[in-house]
Request: fold
Amino acid sequence: LLPACGSGFLFMLVAYVVISPTGAGHSVVPPHVGHTTRTGSATAPTPRSVNVSTLDQSVPDSPPPGVTWQIVDTLAIPFSTTAGPASVVGGIPSGFAHTPTGALIAMAQIVSRISVQPNFMAVTETDVANTAGKATFSQLVAAGGVGNPPDPSPGTYAQLAGFQFVSYTPTTAVVQLLSGLPDSSYEVSTLTVAWDGTDWQLVFGPAGTVSPNQQVVSSPVGFVIWGGV
Reply:
């Protein structure tokens, strides 16, 4: 989720965003519908028309069952048999269950794809809540003229390593995501998703960032260990 090394414009904005191993910026790439996704073991999630009352509304305190992982641009992204996404079209996921696990999967899916896909702005348009923060993010990206590389080298990104729910209501979920760093430490970022009536959407902060803060910790203690690599 975090770049494995270096720092850059998008890194400062999204905290999980792509930069090159040398720290050099990239030109924004137009939507790339045919972008490669390797491995395809995920099964189709339960359709979103399923009655919410029949779904598990408990906040997960262990790895959610029925999750498989696909590698997208070297980053492992979770798919759930019951929590979604129900579809991914042109690299844009949708159809997440209206449950705590659905919120978690949506958060991981959306922030990961914004971080690694060349068409990250298309993902942003669809899967990020329409707030002032979203507008600020778009303006800063346009002004900076940067984007995600089409073929990142293995090791460019730190991988998702765990999570911890801060709060959950049927309208808003706040979760701390843990990512592993090359020096065996971990970075913690706090992310929010909101239910828009039909699906979960990532919420950017007023400054156009995903997380209000990030901190490095030496141990994953206190987090549910969860990742695909």
